[in-house]
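Operator note (shift B, R.M.): manual run for Plant heme peroxidase family profile domain-containing protein requested after the automated queue skipped it. Running by hand, logging everything below so the morning shift can see what happened. Input copied straight from the record, untouched. If output looks odd, do not overwrite the archive copy; leave it for review.
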Amino acid sequence: MASSSSSYWLTASLAFILTATLLLRESQAQLSSTFYDSTCPNVSSIVLDQVQQAQKNDTRILASLTRLFFHDCFVNGCDGSILLDNSSTIVTEKDAAPNNNSARGFGVVDNIKAAVENSCSGIVSCADILALAAEVSVNLSVGPKWSVLLGRRDGTTANFTAAGNLPGPRDNLTTLQKKFNDVGLNDTDLVALSGAHTFGRAQVWVSLQYSNGRMKAVGG
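Run finished. Output pasted below as returned.
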């Protein structure tokens, strides 16, 4: 088990990569940490309360919400498009290979949204709720706090193809570097995100391969 110091730096790394992604995708937008101060001043405390409640029943939820935010931001920016379901005009990102049976925490986001709507209806975007939930999750995991820039508008379309091209555990270094470079991120960002993936729980895959007439297991 990692020490508390190791956990801190892992979550700090994840905070760094999430912040870098947010700034990259939204540097042109007029976002502000005080965006809801007059229209929904309690939004941060509502998100914190809901995430803490979820954590009591699901010890993985902090890592899941943080990962959900990253998977949203890496595809067309932090617009909440990963939350959209299938419709006549939308092919959901949830069904893309990196997310299918992997991305989780959608029910918690729904609960947060309902609680926020009960306090200030029609004000806070789902994209901002996801961003706030990620920051809260990192902080509750003994990671750092940061001022979340708010004021995003929710996306109305999904990008199934781009979601299928998220960085994957079987990508080699060259492929990973290209994927990060394509969205304006560098090798430092790549290392930070890769290291931070020890925060939470990883899936294990095993395949069988033949070599010199013998079968061997190859895992990752």
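Quick read of the result: The CA atoms of residues 208 and 217 lie 5 Å apart. Residues 1-9 have pLDDT under 50 and may be disordered.
Leaving this for review. - R.M.
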